[in-house]
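Aggregate trends can hide what the representation actually does to any particular protein. For completeness, the protein is quoted in full, as a sequence line and a line of structure tokens.
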Amino acid sequence: YPSGNLAVIVVREKKGRICIVQEDKPNNAEIQAVFMSNGRSTCYYPNGSVWINMSIQGGQYLDQEGRRVRRWTWLNTIMSSGPHIPLSPIFISLNQHVGVRILGQDKITVSFLAMGQQAKFSVGTKVQVSDAGRLPPPTWLGEDELLLLAFRVRILQLFDRLRGCLNFPSNEQWDKIKPPAYLTTQTLKILQLCTTSDISDELRSSVRAIVNA
């Protein structure tokens, strides 16, 4: 960002890449979007609510209260169990400098614009038509992404706890310190994702244990 704060992070993994968009803050910046090369992606409203969820089957667009505004399926992943629901182009602004354009499964772009300079990140993916019959049941967020977000929040919780211990050495003060609002928001966000994602009960319990520890 023009402020010098980190805006976009691209991490390479064995199975692909993860693109993360952060808000424009020097510390404790919240995640505004996560795009996985396996086709799973999530965008968030400024208040932390899920905005857009996408998987290799399709996606859904939610309002800030969590109500589904629309959903769609990708053209090359039509399943015999249901009809194809076409995608209408989506353009959203995560913040003043970062926008997301969704035109198709392989036509998803994160655009960064600041001080007359622009950078574009192609974060879409493509599932082969021959693989469509072997696609798993619909899921809006995968196990790896949930665990990644849960551990990130847990680490931030531990850092906040450490700061509290340094600022208030007395044990009697610790229980009176409330976590910052951004941590509470992110914890609720992950717990909400546990409810809406198609994951096992064991993993759901593990994620809840991590963020509530």
In short: Confidence is low (pLDDT under 50) at residues 128-140. The radius of gyration is 19 Å. The longest strand covers residues 107-114.
